[in-house]
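Q: We require from you a single protein entry containing the residue sequence and its fold in token form, and nothing else.
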Amino acid sequence: MPASSFSSHTSDLDEARALCHRYYYPITLVTSYHVNIPFSGQLDSRHRGLEVAADPGRAAVYQPVGETVLRRWSGDCRQLCLKIDRVALENYVEAALGRPIRGPLDLGASMDNGGDRT
């Protein structure tokens, strides 16, 4: 499959949804936590002002709030994109802690996924 490139910048929410649906996958913005776990290649992004280089050893973690910019996605990047419903995760954490939380959860921008680093 030939590699392709796409770049866009918008502040219009409806346009952003349409672009993501067309070039990435159908998403509902700001309702879930999102984890990108590369199996190969690299994904460079910025979320809430923090730069993250995700690769087979490090996954990128995005909160349901704050700006996310996918800066570069290598042509050989194959990844699992995991979305976790915000309400479900925050309710689970509240139940586990036995007290209410003030969401969203303050998660790190990346996590070690135990994979091989390229």
